[in-house]
Give the backbone structure.
Amino acid sequence: MEVLTHKSNKKNIKLSRSTLNKVLIIYMDNTKKTLKVIFNSLDKHNIEYSAIPRSHKSANIFRNKDLIITVGGDGTFLGSAHYIKDTPVLAVSPDELKHEGFFARANRFNFEQKLKQILAGKHTILPLARLFARINNKPVEHSLNEIYAGKRRAYLISKYILKVGNHSEYQKSSGVLIGTASGSYAWIKACGGKELPLNSKKFQFVVREPFRGRFLKYKLLKKVLSPGEKITITSNMRNGVVIADSVGREYKFDRKSILTVTLSRYPLKLVTF
């Protein structure tokens, strides 16, 4: 199910005092101190806002907003990104000692300063590439980091046919990861993927722990792909799943199901400085 909701005609236009009117804050638990700072700053500048815990988020609340602020770790950010089409997002870390905060560009100690920079137009909108996937022509959530395709229980062997361009092969492994530039610093990196510049429009795949036997010799184990390319995986297993960013819903990927992955037309707009 495609959950991108907010529609706009803006094309990477910077935010400013005249365009920043409605803000949505998505937050995780135990962030009261950071939320208080954010609320006080937004009140100070007469900016309308609403705050929703990440466990209560839904597609409707993301509509018609000028800025999304996520308060929490990368999981909060990634989970919110599934609902955002082209609204700019600012990630705020509530505690840099406890959260990785890869996407965070602000914290409770400098939020007021960062907000002033946004209002003055002294910021940058960094487009982060995302993946668009379909299973049997039904859309899957857009993913910012990676898509996993394989067995629900990763200790069982995933069986499938992987096709990239004109090349295809039958494989057995612990599943396949397909990742973006953002994802190249996360799970896919741990599996031997290549780090890509954050602004890159390329994406890649990595086959996890391929099973090598007498009759199975693989050539398609990992590769960096250009924006116009696609990956197709045909399932040959029961209890297979497809998951976006490890925080999305599980999609059934049983025998004969076909997953197609391309680069999304809608990059996520990260507010940075």
Notes: The domain at 131-268 is CATH 2.60.200.30 (Tumour Suppressor Smad4). The mean pLDDT is 94. The radius of gyration is 20 Å.
